[in-house]
Amino acid sequence: MITDDASAPLGRFDEAARLDVVRRYDILDTPPDGAFDRITQLAARFCRAPISTISIVDVDRIWFKSAHGIAVEQIGRDPGLCASAVMQLDPYVVTDASIDPRTLDNPLVCGELGLRFYAAVPLTTHSGYNLGTLNVIDVEPREITDEELATLRDLAAVVVDELELRLAARNRVASEAAQEAARLREAIVAGVSHEMRTPLAVLQGTASLLDEPDGLSDEEAASLRAMHRRHLAQLDRLVHQFLDYVSLEGEHPPTVACVPIDLVPIVEEACEIFGDHTIAVRAEAAVPRGLGDPARTKQIVLELVNNATRFSGGTSVEVSVATYDERTVRIAVSDRGRGLHPHDLERVFDKGFRGRHSTGTGLGLYVSKVLAEAQGGRIEVDSEPGIGSTFALLLPTA
Known about the structure:
398 residues; alpha+beta; 6-stranded antiparallel sheet; 5-stranded mixed sheet; 10 helices; elongated
C-alpha cells in the first residue's frame, strides 16, 4: 500500500509502486502551466544553461511538464538520462557527455541536439518516490557549482510542493463530493421513506375493514377498494422511481421498448389513480399515436400528475393530449398552484432537487427526464410564481 507518510525512507525504487504514485499525482499529459514554466526559466537563468526541463518518467517515455529552450513534449525512456536520474536520490551530473561512459550511446548526445552537459535533481515526493527530474542541459561541456546544485534542489522542492498542493486540493474536492453524494443519498432515502409512509399508513389502517364486509355497505367497500388501488399504485410508482434511480447511479441506462401507443388511454389510466383530486383530461380529436414505451410513458405521466396535484393548492389540474407539430405529440399537465421561482426552474430536473415547499423524493422529475429522452422525447416546463406550472411530455409520433 502506498502512503504519504513523510517519515518513510526517501528514494524508494519499487518501480511498480513509483508508477502508481505518478498516476496518483495525475500530471501526465496535462496542458502547459505557467507555474512550472517559470521554474524551468529560473533554473536555466541561474545555471546559465540554454535548456531546462521538468520531466516525469512514465512506463516507456519521459514526458515534459515544462521544457524551456527546447520544443519537445516527450521522448522514449530507454535510453534516457532522466530515466537514470530518477533512480537515485542524489543529483545526477554529466559534465562532458561525449566522454562519459554512461552517456556515449545516448541519442541526445549522439544525435542532432549534441548534449554535452546535464545536471538533474530528482522530484522526490513527501512519501519518498521520485516522479521525475528538474534538470538543466547545455551543448557545451561544463562544471556545475555547489550553489547551482543547491538552487536546483530548492527549485525541485518547489515543483514537488506545487504538485502536493494540487493533489491535496483534488483530494479535498473528491472528499467534499463524496460527502455531498452521501448527503444527497440520505435526503433521497428520507424523501422516499416520507412519501411511502402515507400510503402504507392508509393501507395498514384500513385493511382490517375489508376483513369485516358486514360492517360496510357495498358502496363503502367499493370506495375502500378503489382507495387501496390508488395507494398501491402510488407505492408502485415510488418503488419503480427508486429502482430507476439506483440503476442510473450504477450507470445502467433505462430499458425502453418503443412501439406505437395510444396516449389518451394511458393518460386516463394515470389520472384515475388520483381519484380524490379534480383532474380534467382533454384530448384533441384524432390525436396521433406516439412512439414510446407504454409503461415508461405512464410512469412519466404519473409523476407529472402527482406533482401537479401536490402543488395545485386544491385547485383543479388539467391534462391535455394534442399534436405539437407534424412529428411530435404532447401531453401537458397544468396546475394553478404557487409556481416555481426562476432559480428553482433552472434546477427542477436535477437529481435530488426539491423545491422550497417540497417534501418529495427529489427523484421524480430527474428520472422522468431520463426516461423521456431514452424514448426519443423530452420534457418541457413553463412556470410563473403565483400563476402555476405546466410540465409537458413530448414524444415522437408513430
